Amino acid sequence: MKYLLPEQLKTSLSLGKPIEQWLSYQKHDDYTVLKWLRIDKERDAIYSVSYIECFDEGGKDFFDIYEFAPLDPNEPFIINSFGAIDEALTFATDNYQASESKFVSAGMIQEEYKDYLTARE
Question: Domain range for residue 55?
């Protein structure tokens, strides 16, 4: 199964395992921006929602999205923190149009990027 079920994503987060979601991309004349987010459990049961925009620097032979240059090197991502999992998830869906049914385990965002590359062909 590719996507986490609602109870799986909450269990993952409560155990300290991050979850991620591919959001979209935006094409410009000479570059493409990829948009994705990550939710982590920080210390003291604080949950952070990180929104990332990076340049599409990959291809079939290089898909490590974690290595792509951020759109704004001075602010590589935007982080908002919450005291509960549900608050973090609600923020992600309300502010970034994330879907609770499209989260993947940390590290799987690269598979989402591969799917984007396949669809782009």
Answer: 6-120
